[in-house]
Automatic annotation (TrEMBL):
This is Gfo/Idh/MocA family oxidoreductase. SUPFAM superfamilies: Glyceraldehyde-3-phosphate dehydrogenase-like, C-terminal domain, NAD(P)-binding Rossmann-fold domains. Belongs to the Gfo/Idh/MocA family. InterPro entries: Gfo/Idh/MocA-like_OxRdtase_N, Gfo/Idh/MocA_domain, GFO_IDH_MocA-like_dom, Glc-Fru_OxRdtase_bac, NAD(P)-bd_dom_sf, TAT_signal. Pfam families: GFO_IDH_MocA, GFO_IDH_MocA_C3.
């Protein structure tokens, strides 16, 4: 029988040990590492880029070596904070020259959603592996173009699905695969927060591509797929808008969506920019259930099943993600849940269908494999 220990070993003992928060770290001695290191340049030095950079300080398999930014003062700050040499610093005009830089293996695109498509394609054309933040693109057409560009350039394309490496999440997936919940019948995903500053790009249709669904609802959608372990075959959706000043046309405030899965399970999800304290997954099967709350925030993630509390390590998501992505890119490691462009494209196809369902009121049939 698969024990928790076996499972954790599979997701790389050293990576977990590295990312455990300080209160747990005493028990886990650091493992020496002399394998390949992914040398990463971060594009977009904003709030999430800063979080990833900080987390990468604890990585053994990945190292922050370069930056791409339109703000010279930020480049200077990052150079001194992370010892980044001048030759590895670019702005959006000089960026294509990165192709002549042999000291950078991958570009991590952490810019506003609408810029992922052009930025990923440029990075691929410069011959660099690409890690792109979620949502990979604004729609499935763009996503497919990004996949094609990376294929053509023979570089890997991964998407920042940090929960795909999170131990509580993976333990539930292990239990579901082992049949411990029986036939899966239902998933509920609640994702939301109350958005603040009305001038931010997240409320600008041009840069965000939509509203809460693109930003936070994608966690419930993606979560339904990895928790149930299947891809949905239909979706219905409804939008509610209470504040037409803050949420302009094309920027959704709240969307509820429902999906059907081939094995008979259904999912009910809520995505909103107008409610706090919404970060919860619930999975129900014939023999048992699992719940995570918080389910996708930066942590600590907490969860339980019908068998009791989930007692998994508390990790820094971005450190573990970068350790694992290094192994995927440089060593061909297969993650438990995929994090590649094709995986992200499936989410974009569902997002396209959700917006179509909101507009038309119709139930939309999904064919994610095509
Ligand atoms: P942010 O506004 O804090 O940072 C965006 C950065 O992009 C800024 O440094 C900004 O200067 C730069 N930028 C470059 N060109 C720009 C332009 N034309 N307009 C505006 N900014 C421009 O945003 P963020 O919260 O860091 O989000 C960036 C991306 O990361 C988004 O795609 C978001 O969905 C994603 N994200 C992912 C997670 C996660 O947990 N995986 C969390 C937060 C954000």
């Amino acid at each position: 029988m698969n024990s928790r220990r076996d499972f954790l070993q599979k997701i790389t003992a050293s990576a977990i040990a590295l990312t455990i928060l300080p209160r747990y770290s005493m028990a886990m001695p650091e493992q020496p590492y002399d394998g390949p290191v992914l040398r990463v340049a971060i594009m977009g030095l904003g709030s999430y880029g800063s979080r990833v950079a900080e987390a990468m300080q604890s990585c053994k398999k990945a190292k922050l070596v370069g930056v791409i930014s339109g703000t010279p003062s930020k480049i200077k700050d990052w150079q001194s904070k992370y010892s980044i040499p001048e030759k590895n610093c670019y702005n959006y005009e000089t960026f294509d020259k990165i192709k002549d830089n042999p000291d950078i293996d991958a570009v991590y695109v952490i810019t506003p959603n609408a810029l992922h498509h052009p930025h990923v394609i440029r990075a691929a054309q410069a011959g660099k592996h690409v890690i792109c933040e979620k949502p990979m693109a604004l729609n499935a057409k763009e996503g497919q173009e990004m996949i094609n560009a990376c294929k053509k350039a023979n570089v890997k394309l991964l998407v920042g699905y940090r929960m795909h490496f999170e131990p509580h999440t993976l333990e539930i997936i292990r239990m579901r695969k082992a049949g411990e919940f029986g036939k899966i019948l239902f998933f509920q995903g609640l994702c939301g927060f109350k958005i603040g500053d009305p001038n931010q790009w997240r409320l600008n249709k041009q840069l965000a591509g939509g509203g809460s669904l693109m930003d936070i609802g994608i966690y419930a959608l993606n979560g339904s797929r990895y928790m149930i372990g299947e891809d949905p075959i239909w979706v219905t959706a409804q939008e509610t808008k209470t504040d037409h000043n803050l949420f302009k046309p094309g920027v959704d405030e709240t969307i509820q969506f429902q999906m059907g899965f081939p094995g008979g399970a259904v999912a009910s999800c809520l995505s909103t920019y107008n409610m706090n304290n919404l970060d919860r997954f619930f999975l129900n099967g014939e023999k048992g259930f699992a719940e995570l709350q918080p389910s996708t925030g930066y942590g600590p993630i907490k969860g339980r099943t019908n068998k009791g509390e989930l007692n998994q390590p508390i990790v820094v998501h971005q450190t573990l993600q970068m350790e694992e992505m290094s192994a995927i890119i440089l060593q061909g490691k297969q993650p438990v849940v995929p994090v590649d462009g094709e995986e992200a494209l499936k989410d974009l196809k569902v997002i396209d269908a959700i917006y179509e369902a909101v507009k038309s009121g119709n139930k939309i049939t999904l064919k994610l494999a095509e």
